[in-house]
Amino acid sequence: MIRPSLPMSGGNVNCRTPQASSDWPQPRGLFHQRFLFCGIALAILSAVGMLRAETPGANSAKTDQSSGASAIVAGTTSMEVLDSTYRLGPGDRLSYRVVEERRQPVPLMIADSGELEVPLIGRVPARSRTCKELAQAIKPMLEREYFYKATVIISLDSVSSKARGRVYLSGQVRQQGPIEIPPDEKFTLSKAIFKAGGFSDFANHHKVKILRKPANGGGKAQTLMVDLDAVTVHGELDKDLELQPDDTIIVPEKFVNF
Question: Does the structural domain 166-251 have CATH classification 3.10.560.10?
Fold first, then answer.
């Protein structure tokens, strides 16, 4: 039954019974809304979890790479297979072990001075040496006091992003002075001349001189003579010498007969 509306001051009030079930919240619709909300929340939580799981993996890429290099060192028992091409420099990270110790590889880094702090024996010059040369230098030091026989295994974990030192150019080149050695390439004499703007007009291409300090820092400098025309004109790339830090390059003037 519907009661008649009664006039009241300030307006009319209509009292009626619900005409359809749509006037009230539907239990089924409310259930669907809650279910949808829960589904969205679970999806968000799942996405956050995946991001957290992926982030450590990305950050640990370098660690995984170093671990792989250490595993190679751990499985190597011969010094003959060590790298003999890449020249080490400050900031390079290495893995080091002595086979006879039967221990896991030790991570080491070459200091800015170019020296490597080696367990038991202390600092050893490492700049401009290959892994094989460095291992061969350390071997007799260990055998002098600690081992009857020492099999030294060294490998490169990562290359430093720093410049590997400088070389110095003088004489008949466009730009004289120091040039930094890039950290990630084999820096040869022809590349240094190119970076210096090339030869000047009166340069003697056949007698380019390289003065090189001894590895141990003492003694007389070594003099190397290079015919760069053999490299750049005739393609004899084996004559394009790789430069080392503190090399001095002198390009003489050619004699002109009138």
Answer: yes
Question: Residue 95 in 3-state DSSP?
Answer: strand
Dist CA 90 CA 44 (whole Å): 47
**Dihedral in degrees, nearest 10, Cα atoms 162, 199, 231, 127:** -20
Angle at alpha carbon of residue 14, lines to 12 and 20, rounded to 5°: 155
Q: Which two tokens stand for residue 45?
A: 């939580």
| DSSP assignment letter at 149 | S
pTM summary value: 0.56
Which of 69, 82, 89 lies closest to 242, judged by CA? Answer: 89
Q: What tokens appear for 121 in the block?
A: 């024996």
CA 208, CA 249: separation in Å to the nearest integer?
A: 7
- To 5 degrees, how large is the angle CA 170–CA 160–CA 120? 105
- Measured in whole angstroms, the distance separating CA 205 from the mean position of its chain's CA atoms is 36
* pLDDT tens, position by position, 85-135: 888 988 999 999 999 998 999 999 999 888 999 999 999 999 889 999 999
CA angle, 227 as apex, 221 and 233 as ends, to 5°? 150
* Gap between the Cα atoms of 239 and 224, Å rounded: 11
Q: Are 87 and 128 in contact (CB under 8 A)?
A: yes
Distance from C-alpha of 106 to C-alpha of 30, rounded to nearest angstrom: 64
Would you identify the CATH topology of the domain 62-158?
Answer: wza like fold (3.30.1950)
What pLDDT is attached to residue 75? 74
Question: Edge-to-edge strands of the sheet including 152-158?
Answer: 106-109, 93-98, 152-158
- The kind and range of the H/E element at 29 are helix 27-59
The CATH 3.10.560.10 domain(s) of the chain lie at 166-251
